[in-house]
Amino acid sequence: MSEAILVTGAMGQVGKRCVEILLARGGAVVATDVSTPANAKAASQLQQLHTSDKLQVAFVDLTDREGVLDLVRRYQPGAIIHLAAIVSPVCYAMPELAHRVNVDGTRNLVAAATALKDAPLFIFASSSAVYGSCNPNTQAVINSETPTKPIECYGMDKVLGEQSVVESGLPYGILRLAGVLSPDGFGKMSDEYRALVRATPGDNRVHGIDARDVALAFANATQLPQPHRNRVFLVAGDDSYCKTQREIEDDVMAALGVGRLGPEASLPGDPDDDLGWSFTNWFDIGDAQDVLQFQQHRWDDTLAWLKSSLNPVVRIAVRGLAPLIRQGMMASIRRQRKKEQRGPYAAPWSLIGQLYGDGVLVPEQLPERQE
């Protein structure tokens, strides 16, 4: 077994920052991801910044069982950080492919790891999606005792991925993440992301975390002491990140110079419907901060990071046109609600089922259609 750390999803918003932390500490890293033009560009940038032989880049499709086995056998890592996934809401447009990557890919990686003579420490990225719909009127904060009850395909994929890791016999750590925030994420506002934003109740609780802190949590998890292995950690920002969906959207819009849209930009959740909410809530992270030492930023720091990522010329233009932009956005929101025949409540999973089909939802959790 080598001292190298294998990082999957290494070109993503968390992965690339995790790789940089590990390399800055003098560690050897095998950075792997699926081969795409965007990932090739990110890999090239990493290699330009880190020219030593401490960094190895390997493009492997996790659904290729033999390819994964060969990768793990070749480098024999001492630890594996498994970040790669097709996440929500992108997975709603391709649930079958997402399942192959998220579940079968994880099983392939676990199988390859268990085949090594010396078992590596397996650090798995999970999600608050495993908890399903979280009604803040009937549910307290998420803690280590909260049962998993996924309502859609991504949450179910993560439950199955966790199960593969736990049952493997490998030493492990599972990190269930709150809402990860970075300029990368806000720069990828696809149709799927916009649909999820429309679907989420404005008064839904959301616990965020800066992507840089998530990367640090995973890097530090590779040094988990024995007493803290083989367990789940809840990873979220400090209390400044405990917001509602509407507050997060408005704070981001204000930071980018557009200004706040206000409560009318979101529909509320139905307080009497436990399935009428998104899979987010505030976290009680227990001893995760004491063990992993990852909280380095506050909400204002993340907002400043998002603001600094905006081109200065664009920022000036946005500020000058802000009233017109807000007016246009609100008009678009009203038109979209009318087109989708939305009712008085957000009913997120009814909308997601309407847009992508009930196949993306867990059958026993299917909500009734909102009339």
UniProtKB/TrEMBL annotation:
List, for all copies, the residue spans of the domain called NAD(P)-binding.
Answer: 6-182
Leader peptide range in chain numbering: none
Q: Which residues cross the membrane?
A: none
Q: What is this protein called?
A: NAD(P)-dependent oxidoreductase
